[in-house]
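Worked Example 4.2. Read the sequence first, then its structure tokens.
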Amino acid sequence: MNLDEEISAAPDFAGMLRHHGLGTLRRAELRTLQVNVGKLCNQACHHCHVDAGPKRTEIMQRETAERVLALLAANPSVGMVDLTGGAPELNPNFRLLVETARALGRHVIVRCNLTVLWVAEMDWLPEFFRAHAVELMSSLPCYTADNVDTQRGPGVFQKSIEALRWLNRLGYGMPGSALRLSLVYNPVGAFLPPPQAALEARYREELRRLFGIEFHRLYTITNMPIRRFAEQLARWGQHDAYMGLLVNHFNGATVPELMCRTLLSVGWDGALYDCDFNQMLELPLGAASRGPPRTLTVWEIDDLAALRDAPIATASHCFGCTAGAGSSCGGAVV
């Protein structure tokens, strides 16, 4: 069996890198600290790789949040803080994380599911976002109700549209505004996202025409075959076919720009990972290195620059980030 046949039979990401002469995937200069504050969410989306929902109890405690902020203060070269979850706004330390990060001069991104604005006693959020010039990245898997409600739950589309209108009234997403509002597209099935630029143009046309909504960018993200989406694929009998799709569309040009090279993921309990996907699989930081892998935490490191050139832990799910135009928390890679 030749290497191509081996890769087809078993999706070995490290083997694919070797096959394309790309060597071991390693970290570059760290630019983003992505903090997953927990799995509590007001939604339970079918595609969610976090397996988040209203009944999850994993949540970042005050001591951990304070240590994350101390680590951020000690590493001024890390210019961006990316808050995710679950719904990060539901964490009791959300205000602390945003306010302190902004006071330290860091750019803050919040991955907002939009419907959290309608949760009881959360109506302060839009003004809070504006006051701290938070950038919003908000999931909206389609510009039609049927597709959104199928993926994210009944009534989610209408609440999302009303939330976007609310944010537009405050200046978010408006042409020329510094208040950044971007939308995130995930496929509703077992297929790759369409070209990002073309889909963004269609979203802009339809949302403006139907609802008068404005936004800055649309980012396309490939559904990762882990946790809830992997379970759904298994129920559909499409898991192997989907993995084959990802493997067969591997694009070596995406590898230098993969988010794991410049991003460090922090778990709700303070554990460190190469990316949020590895975190959900509990794949320890740099597990590709020699020796038994172990989980490093925010309490065991002070100088984040020391991670540069370290190997990145990889597994078969990494094909999701390298298929087609690639995928990252910032959308298509190439």
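Now turn to a second chain, presented in exactly the same format:
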Amino acid sequence: MALKRHHKIIIGSFSFFVLVLIILLSFLTYSVYIQESQHYNSLNDKLSTLEANTQSQINTISSNLLDVQNSLNKSQEQVQQQISLLKATNNADFSGIINQSIKSVVTIKTSAAQGTGFIINSNGYVVTNAHVLADSSGHLASNIQVITDKQQTIDAKYIGYNGTLDIAILKIPGTYTPLDLGDSNKVQIGDKVIAIGNPLGLQFSVSEGIISATNREGINNLPYYFQTDAALNPGNSGGPLIDQQGNVIGINNFKISSGESLGFALESDYIKSAVNLIGEENLNQTLIS
């Protein structure tokens, strides 16, 4: 039986309603999908940001822990240095400084005399007093040799000198551990010192004393000298005067023979300037940085 007209209208309307409903449901489903996708992407971005921030914080914490560890190590080293200094002040550990320093001290022999020197550059540059290298007529002596603490005798090359400050530079082949120069401006009266040299031919002898005065005038009328009661004798000239930290604060230069315990050493700041001037004039280089 054929459908009547109103039946067709009802069926058509219902079909249209179902189609619209399907479209609306599809749109709603798509909207929900889009919202969920956006929410997922947003959550994923937040997780990525959180992960990056967490990693950054972990790196910062690790760096801070490393800084703390380095600081603790540095503090421990400083404490050990202070302990070593305290021992040296109490005469309990000067032997360590002597054993370390004496490796860089040398005996200097010429055809005319004998003295002392010390290494100021790893390339084998040696500083001494100019008068150690002079013969009786005041000229440069021949056959200059250096004897190390291991009793190696090495021919030395003369580089140059500063007559006013009585400083001369020699060069020996090889690589060596130099002595460090301290800041002579920080030296105070009463500071303990040791002198290493070859008094009367007794190689690598050590004497101990204190700084008796600073900025004393030397035979050149310049106030560039420490006065010390550390025993100085012929053969000590050119040797180092060393403080409790193992630094050279002076080069032993002369003594007053008519008095007791009246030795004088050129202060380290003037050693440095004289050495570098000799290096620049004769080698076009700075020997002590």
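Notes for the reader: The longest strand covers residues 205-216. The chain has three domains: 55-92, 97-171, 184-282.
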